[in-house]
Design brief:
The chain is mostly beta strands. Helices cover about 10% and strands about 35% of the residues. It has 1 helix and 14 strands, in the order αββββββββββββββ. The strands form 4 sheets. It has a 5-stranded mixed β-sheet with strand order 6-2-5-9-12, with no helix packed on it. The protein has a 5-stranded mixed β-sheet with strand order 3-4-8-11-14, with no helix packed on it. The protein has a two-stranded parallel sheet with strand order 1-7. The protein is globular, with a radius of gyration of 19 Å.
Amino acid sequence: MNKKHILKVSPLVGAVLLALSAPVAMAAVTAPAAGSLPGNFSTLNAPGTTYSAGSSNSATITVSGASTGVSAAVLQWGGTTLAGGTVGLVTSANNVPATNAGFDIGANASLTIATTGTAPSSLLINDQTGNPSQIYGTLNASSLGAPLFIANGNGVILGAGGTIN
């Protein structure tokens, strides 16, 4: 008796195979330089947001004055610069160490996100640079007082030694 064997792949098995192959694709991405931090970004609805250095490998983004009626503040790297009213491009202080085009934190670097004044109910980090966001250092948002979301259509990599508080 001659039987034909047909391999049927269920959607679940296909999803598992895709997930297992993702680390191989991500391996081709070069990690950000040690001590480097995200570069300039824009915001539309959080006037008063500042970006300043703490030391040679640390910096703080302070979100201040969320616009009235805004539930979520947005900080965006890449894409079209958000602009409206007096808000737009937020540049890093001169003494912020080497910066990356996207939302990338190199090993041994630390970025703190805090609020002062009217805090948003949540904060969205939106990376539209076309590359995955990479966190190999420390992202500390424990004093933010609101949920933090990181969005990147190309993925978010939490590398060896990377931490998010």
